[in-house]
Fold this sequence. Notes:
The protein is of the alpha+beta class. The chain is about 45% helix and about 20% strand. The protein is globular.
Amino acid sequence: MADNIAIMKAGAMSEIKDKLLEKINYLEKNRDVILERLVSIGECSYYEKFKKDCGIKISILDRLIELGKQYRDKDLFEKNQKDENGFEDKAYEILNSLDPNDSRDVIIEISSFEENKESEDFMNDLIVMYQKYSEQKKWKHTLISSESTKKGFLKQAIFDVKGESIFRHLKYEAGFHDAITNSDSKGNNFKEISVFIKVYPVIEEKELRWRPEDLKIETFHSSSHGGQSVNTSDSAVRITHLSSGISVSSQNERSQYQNKENALRILRARIVLAEEERLLELKSSERKLMLTNHLNKNKIRTYDFKKNKILDHRLEKTFNDLKHILKGNIDEIIIALMELDEIRKLNYILEL
């Protein structure tokens, strides 16, 4: 797969060489207009995160313009084309810093749309897969919230992952994960089920501030799997952001303080994701300079337990030995997605 991606990347570089320089020249000539729109998008939110992101995107814009100036001289351009790190590579190096969230820790939210044992089993398979993958990467993987249906089936699990460059690896996991899985103990019948995964970059408290009156904080008894109370103290916490209506509950910790901190951590991530989705609706081509690519709502992968295979729909590639992959061995898929993203970043500037 890596060889195929390398060939695709080389082809993409060759194809867009002239257009890339042409587009950078366009950015230079129209910098003031683009800058005005970027600042407008950045300031339409009062969250510090988006203002910071806006500044990073402006910096990338200026670095691309400077690169164009360096290569405008024909002799210098031809000389650098012979270098190992030519014009396209340098443009990609700049674009590779496009997502300021790449170095952040993440919160992963897995939700089921069905209330049955098969769906719960599939969710648990995915939780274990990410846990094992985190262990391989020396990341810290912690369950911070879980919720069950009235019948006792797991319907949502939220966990965070801490370490180095985690969002850069896991942001591609956002979207619908489908499974063709056993519906009886003998393995004779199969059914299709689906779960949805959201991947949030962890937002620091200083990046999103609110007043005490912006939040409604409630406490209640923690419940175990199936809805039974696990203690007599009000250690569980539910926090609602009143203006957006976004609500988060946390009950996995025995400490009310820790449950509150976990709920606030999730709430910040959800509010920022909602803001990013709102920005996505703005009818400006420069909006892409403000956004990350973890808002996927498409079907991204099918786990075929019947054939013991995984199909990644973005790569259009089938990976064998599903059981092996579910033990956390997903690095081949993740790396292929990261390399595919390189091609998209090279073409990205042409879509401005």
